[in-house]
Amino acid sequence: MNGAFAASLARFGSVALFLLRVLRACGPALARPRLIAHQVYNCGARSLIIIMLCGLFVGMVLGLQGYDLLARFGSESALGVAATLGLLKELGPVVTALLFAGRAGTALTSEIGLMRATDQLTAMQMMAVDPMRRVIAPRFIGGLIAMPLLAAVFNVIGIFGAQLVGVTLLGVDQGTFWSQMQNAVELSDVNEGIVKSLAFGVICSLLAVYEGYNAVPTAEGVGLATTRTVVASSVMTLVIDYMLTAAFLKA
To answer: For residue 5, what are the contacts with CB-CB under 8 A and spacing of at least 6?
Structure first.
């Protein structure tokens, strides 16, 4: 038990030190906007299909479940408020982070891990090219930028899905749906979702590049690193979500 705790503590310290190295390399990496734009495309644009598809069906399910729950209290007209707040504050950032870890995070880890296995990172160091600046930092920044954008797309499509079910299928008045949503949703609710998506972007991108950079240079090692990325990112996303939710409720 003590050995497992010590190993976990050592791993946490290793990730923290790696984060400092990445942050130190982010300044020079910003001088290469084309690299960052390419990584935003890889992490963001290539994840749009799954984000939009999942956002639509999550919103539709939220519309069905929300209507069923609110109908028990005679408050079906509040469906727009319930669906929007659920998406903005919780479901949007969390589900987007989980999908990001499963799609973009694994891609980042396997790509960097393959570069480690084929000695490309070592070759860069021999040519006096810092892999942290050329490889790691642009991917970290790209993931950090892509996450809030993907969460915003998820929220918009999710609200549309909830409106599609609530108004078209279940008969909720369209004007009531949108007017109550606009009156009840405040800027602080939107800010909470943005803060969460930024935090999830940091942790998911960091774990993805960390696992890839420190992967054992074998096929099995790259596969294990990819698996660790998904598991660690998913767990940390839920833990940080609870901590941020508690902090916003107390604020």
So the answer is: none
pLDDT for 249 equals: 87
The answer to whether the beta carbons of residues 210 and 23 sit under 8 Å apart is: no
Amino acid identity at 65? Q
Q: Which of 36-40's residues contact partners 24+ apart within 8 Å by CB, and which partners?
A: 36/138, 36/141, 36/142, 36/145, 38/138, 38/142, 39/138, 39/139, 39/141, 39/142, 39/143, 40/142, 40/145, 40/146
User: What does the alpha-carbon distance between residue 39 and residue 41 come to, in Å, rounded to a whole number?
Assistant: 5
Q: What is the 3-state secondary structure (H, E, C) of the chain?
A: CHHHHHHHHHHHHHHHHHHHHHHHHHHHHCCCHHHHHHHHHHHCHHHHHHHHHHHHHHHHHHHHHHHHHHHCCCCHHHHHHHHHHHHHHHHHHHHHHHHHHHHHHHHHHHHHHHHHHCCHHHHHHHCCCCHHHHHHHHHHHHHHHHHHHHHHHHHHHHHHHHHHHHHHHCCCCHHHHHHHHHHHCCHHHHHHHHHHHHHHHHHHHHHHHHHHHCCCCCHHHHHHHHHHHHHHHHHHHHHHHHHHHHHHHHC
**pLDDT tens digit sequence for 101-154:** 999 999 999 999 999 988 888 888 888 888 898 899 999 999 999 999 999 999
Contact 244, 200 (CB under 8 A): no
**CB-count exposure of residue 96 (10 Å: 0-12, 13-18, 19+):** buried
| 160 vs 56: CA distance, rounded Å | 7
